[in-house]
């Protein structure tokens, strides 16, 4: 009775109507962004000759649990270089349902998740993975000083298959701090696509600094190219939205990827205005048995 009376008030009806309008507008904008992203990818495939090169990774992008098509590119990298222990490590896993390794977990891989925000733990609880050895986790803020210690304490193998770093501000410094302590076969790194491909640039290091929402973050693709070369890795591609770069350890590159392995050759500009979940709402996928 009181509820019906409450909702009959003109001001409440107007608020409900406005909320419904806002929800419809948000849905329309999201759908429009998703359509734009699809059209962009289709347009690039038909107009950019790089997509015709089978050694490039751009044409293999698809989105299962990732944000920018990383799932497909990662699958293609390991189709070319093979897998060994099927172990991943990712820093910056977000909410636990949309990141670079959630899809691998559903395909039978095991690994390690670390993030400063504990929200991803809720997803692990829902999926029954909190006590599982398949996915170990830690809530921690990664920096240059603690990265090696955290990976060592978690028991991450030195030669895991995949390392993914997406910690916004200090990613360049953290990858550099790993040195020879860990030698993943492939690496996914967030880069700053606002900086042109030929310019070497990175933010000043401060362990307590966090991303302020501007384009003053991380490092340019050229800076990562040079860091990767120093660590023994080759830049083999970027995702179409200019968010992540992909590196493969030099001893595994062979003739599998498009040379030269430079930022000028593989750079994609930031297209963040087109990043949107394509399709149904995201969720952790059921885990398949390892073949």
Please characterize this protein's 3D structure.
With 291 residues, this protein is α/β, with parallel strands linked by helices. It has two domains: 1-47; 54-274, Rossmann fold, CATH 3.40.50. It has helices at 2-8, 10-47, 70-81, 102-106, 119-126, 147-154, 171-178, 221-231, 250-253, 263-266; strands at residues 87-91, 110-115, 135-139, 162-165, 186-190, 233-238, 244-249. The chain has a seven-stranded mixed β-sheet with strand order 3-2-1-4-5-7-6, with helices on both faces. Strand 6 (233-238) and strand 7 (244-249) form a beta hairpin. The termini are far apart. Residues 24-35 have low confidence and may be disordered.
Q: How much of the residues is beta strand, in percent?
A: 5-15%
Morphology: globular
**Assigned CATH architecture of the largest domain:** 3-Layer(aba) Sandwich
Which range best describes the helical content: under 10%, 10-25%, 25-40%, 40-55%, 55-70% or over 70%? 25-40%
Largest sheet: 7 strands, mixed
Largest sheet, spatial ordering of strands: 3-2-1-4-5-7-6
Helix-strand string: HHHEHEHEHEHEHEEHH
The number of distinct helices, counting runs of at least 4 residues, comes to: 10
- Return Rg in Å: 21 Å
At the first level of CATH, the class of the largest domain is: Alpha Beta
| CATH fold category name of the largest domain | Rossmann fold
Unreliable segments (pLDDT under 50, ≥5 consecutive)? 24-35
Number of discrete domains = 2
CATH superfamily of the largest domain: Vaccinia Virus protein VP39
Structural class: alpha/beta
Task: Kindly report how far apart the N and C termini lie.
Answer: 59 Å
Q: Let me know the average pLDDT.
A: 84
Strand segment tally:
7
